[in-house]
Amino acid sequence: MPALTDAAEPSSGLSARGKYLLFGALGLASAVADQLSKAWVQHHLPTLGRSGMSVIGRRLILIYAENPGIAFSQFQNLSGGRVVLSLVSVAALALIIGYLRKVPSSNVATIAGLGLIWGGALGNVIDRVSHGSVTDFVLVNLGVWPFNPWPVFNVADAVLVAGVALMILARVKRAPESAQ
User: Fold this and answer.
1) Active-site choice (6, 34, 127, 136)
2) Alpha-carbon distance 116 to 167, whole Å?
3) How many domains, in total, are found in the chain?
4) Is 136 marked active-site?
5) Which among 5, 41, 63, 130 is least surrounded, fewest beta carbons within 10 Å?
6) Does 37 map to a domain?
């Protein structure tokens, strides 16, 4: 398997089939990991209440939370929020697929990043459609801004952010090459 770089040489990268296999494998693995972690959380954490389960002192805590809104709990009281946010999320999934089709097979890191973003978005869409809110459970509190504490999040959010970071790194790496 090629390294996760966005080399400009036409001979490097993935086949057309490999492009979609990488995207699909990362997307599916991300969504499955997210859903399995949320199933575990829903079964084990509610009985612990607001104190949650300490992983690293009070710095990293697993705590059960349901978020009917979007990132940082925005739009929690949006009228028809479940339907509106679900439709927006499904549209975003379609846009990601549309963008993937335009990405050259040589841009492996971008393809991987899109797979992670798609899988994270899918994991949260499954929650929203199935029960109207997203299960969050990771609380980070490092005692300094902005981590005092950071809003509660889940595996889908983490892989989505990792996908965005991977795409940014790939873009930054390509920028000096394209300037030459």
Assistant:
1) 136
2) 10
3) 1
4) yes
5) 130
6) yes
